[in-house]
Amino acid sequence: MSQFKINSITDKSGYCGPVIAGVSTNNSTGCMIIPAGPTSYRGNRGRGILSHGYEPNSVRNIDVINIATTGNATDWGDQLNNGVGFAGGASNNNRGVYTGGFEGAPANGRVNTIQALTMPTNGDIYDFGDLTYTVQQMAGAGNETRGVFSSGYAYPLAPSTDAFQQIFYEINFASSGLAGGFGDIPTNASCRSMTSIQSQTRGFFCGGEGTYLAPGTQNRKITEITFTTKGSAITFGELSGESKSGAGMESHTRAVVVLGGNATSPEAFKDTIEYFTMATRGNTTDFGNASSNTGAMNNNSVTNTTRGVYHLSRTSDGGAELNTLEYITIASTGNATDFGDLTAVSREGCGLSDTHGGLHE
Q1: How large is the average pLDDT for residues 185-208?
Q2: What are 102's strand-pairing partners?
Q3: 3-state secondary structure 218-242
């Protein structure tokens, strides 16, 4: 332990300063406390970072909001290259990660790039490594150290059913690159366009497009994983209906899901919001309603464990892209309320939070 020397304070004689020796403590409310712990915990938290996805081509825009304060988003910076829609996302308080996605013109293809950004600092984004395949529609959940992602749609393996790998991958936020496989997704669940939720110990993946190797069989299952245990995926419960590309938000105890579309053609959008208690396995309960039918959200949602904010990106399948943000108060059921606007219209972006339910206070 370093010594803390004070020589500018003297005794009555003015001859010498105080002498502090041995083990000394001070519990005064008037003393100065030296900051400890990671610098990312010292203020500037409660940020929500939302990428834009498509409009109608992929765009690079990334916006930022203060989740506790309603109002319009401001510019955070840009994604790498041409930007992507349909990316997976997970974060801790210091680093956020986007995995894969679909890049528009001139490439017009899926990508295998893992993009990482520094949560407290605007504009700091860089190449984190590569996925094994070019992939879209992954979904991610994270805690302090690890992000776990559903496998999504591995496009190079299509039209074979191997394109639906039905596995989870993991990323360690402190180390660049894909760490490897985390375990299998249950055969009664989806692997793509799922809605993700996290607590400090577990991740939850809800609904999605397709079931196992049958893309036409849609899904309402909730799959649970334990971050510290590979191969731990089990069925937690069910949503009230099918949900493709919804949005998820949470406190440390309650999960809230804005349901996406029924994955038909055209998709049937709805205004349903539901919740479940993460400690108790079972089905969801009605929470309230979005301001209109919605879908094409791709987890473009953020939370500070008190309030959840999501991007209402469309009101119907094939409808105009919107820039509308809405919020809910997680602890109390009720309908969503207007929060503000993104800086431009878009759909299928991806949200990252530095204060979500998977992180310590």
Answers
A1: 96
A2: 85, 110
A3: CCCEEEEEECCCCCCCEEEEECCCC
Looking at residue 211, what is its pLDDT? Answer: 87
The answer to whether 352 and 99 have CB atoms below 8 angstroms apart is: no
End-to-end CA distance of the chain: 27
Q: Work out the number of other CB atoms within 10 angstroms of the CB of residue 344.
A: 14
31-44 core/surface letters (b: 16 or more CB in 10 A; e: else): eeeeeeeeebbeee
Confidence of residue 129 (pLDDT cuts 50, 70, 90): very high
C-alpha of 351 from chain center: 5
- pLDDT number for residue 309: 98
Residue 2: in which H helix or E strand, if any? none
Of the candidates 210, 170, 214, 216, the one whose C-alpha atom is nearest the C-alpha of residue 191 is 210
Parallel, antiparallel or unpaired: strands 350-353 and 270-277: unpaired
Residue 266 tokens read as 């055209």
User: 73 with 135: CB under 8 angstroms?
Assistant: no
Taking a C-beta distance cutoff of 8 angstroms, is the pair 308, 331 a contact? no
Instruction: Please give the single-letter amino acid code of residue 170.
Output: E
The per-residue pLDDT for range 251-292, each reduced to its tens digit, is 999 999 999 998 777 889 999 999 999 999 999 999 999 999
CA–CA gap between residue 140 and residue 169 (Å, rounded): 9
Enter the tokens of residue 290: 């979005």
Token pair for 336: 């969503």
- DSSP H helical ranges for 164-217: none
Span 294-311, pLDDT tens digits:
999 999 999 999 999 999
3-state secondary structure of 202: strand
In one-letter notation, the amino acid at residue 163 is A
Query: Alpha helix (H) ranges present in the chain?
Result: none
Which phi and psi (to 5°) does residue 41 adopt? Answer: -85, -5
